[in-house]
Amino acid sequence: MAEELDLPWCFEEEHLAWQKTVAEFCTRVVAPGVVRRDLAGQLDPDLIREVGNLGAFGLRVPEVYGGSGADLRSMCIAAEEFSVLDSSLAVTVHVQAISAVLFHHLADEDLRAEFLPGMATGETFCAFGLTEPTGGSDAGNIGTRAVRNGSDWIINGAKQFITNSGTPFSKYVILFAAHEREGGSAGGRAPISAFLVPLDAPGVSVGPKYPKMGWRSSDTHPLYFDDVRIPANHLLGQEGRGYREALAFLTWARIPIAAMAAGLARGCLEATLEFATSRDSFNRPLTSHQAVAFGIADLSAMTDTCRLLTYDAAWKFDTGRPIEREAAVSKLMASELANQVAYKASHLHGGYGFMDDSHVARHYRDARILTIGEGTSEVQRMLIARGLGLPV
Ligand SMILES: Cc1cc2nc3c(=O)[nH]c(=O)nc-3n(C[C@H](O)[C@H](O)[C@H](O)COP(=O)(O)OP(=O)(O)OC[C@H]3O[C@@H](n4cnc5c(N)ncnc54)[C@H](O)[C@@H]3O)c2cc1C
Questions:
Q1: What would the mean pLDDT of 289-315 be, rounded to a whole number?
Q2: What is the pLDDT of residues 230-284, one digit of tens each?
Q3: Cα of 152 from ligand 1 centre, angstroms
Q4: Which residue's CA lies nearest to atom 21 of ligand 1?
Q5: pTM for this structure?
Q6: Which residue, of 239, 272, 302, is where some domain finishes?
Q7: Which residue from 120, 90, 72 is spatially nearest to 253, judged by alpha carbons?
Q8: What is the predicted pLDDT for the residue at 188?
């Protein structure tokens, strides 16, 4: 492990050991096929099984359910290391890992015992189904409906852009659906519950995968629900409160996205250093031109900023401090900076940076989603502004 990746105020021995393990895994297992997977737009099931053996899917799931009972810093370390090379893999792991932790938080003991061990190892993927075709930022405006029918729930509606919903491992989705208000829709928004819905239940259809500019070898589909009947005990959390419970619980989930931005920035820095130190222009090494060296210095400084914000937020979470502001600030700044880093790194590669099979071109494409997923930059600014008492 390079010494500069150590953050002595925040990393314990166990974090450094985990960082080394994941970094070695990435060199040995992730790196060889990353360009092929990206260009083909295909998730590799063998890679997912290897990641399962590594233990990355159940990092924050208690050991009794097959997880590692690790902390958020460990989750961020994995997200960062994967993203140095392969942001598609990082998001695949992220969605499964947060779904498993959320499921543990919302489900009762019987459901946990039945479903959580498979989720913790990644043998069964559970997608997270919140966003709808009408909009994701205003996530509480949900058109999908759940109606009680005897001892069952009947679900109708559609979800959009759902990660991990069509892989060979995809078996469930944590679905958010609204209830009709008694007496019609007057009096504010309908209450929203969370449900565990099997993807092979009659009436569920998984639409064709989206062609995407980035995160190409991650798996993203629309989902449709047509009179889907699920048993009453698949309600997660309290009836009518599952959405609020999930949102309040998942504040920390923005921090691994900041870690992904930090990893992507590091990947750009490392690729640019390698490229620029092995190339000449005007009979001099490329790096001896001050403009190039300063450009790389900027990449390095921005990468450090992403990492510091990420691990400050994760450390505060792990030590029981409030993180509402830190989660939004780290996600906002790291994702915006990663886009600047990717732009500059691609520029410093000249024409090679425009070639689809170069590492920086992949990072450039993958960076775009970081300011959009898990709450756009505007949503993060809204949260930060509200924390300052501003009326937005
Ligand atoms: C590859 C991919 C994977 C995804 N995976 C999942 C998943 O697994 N599960 C899931 O539930 N969702 C998922 N999403 C959805 C993602 O969370 C949403 O795309 C995101 O929240 C933005 O929602 P939207 O696309 O509907 O944009 P909109 O909400 O329509 O926003 C459009 C633009 O308007 C801006 N905007 C909206 N409201 C305001 C406002 N009040 N003030 C200022 N600006 C505003 C936004 O910031 C944005 O720039 C995924 C998306 C992608 C692209």
A1: 98
A2: 999 999 999 999 999 999 999 999 999 999 999 999 999 999 999 999 999 999 9
A3: 31
A4: 136
A5: 0.97
A6: 239
A7: 72
A8: 76
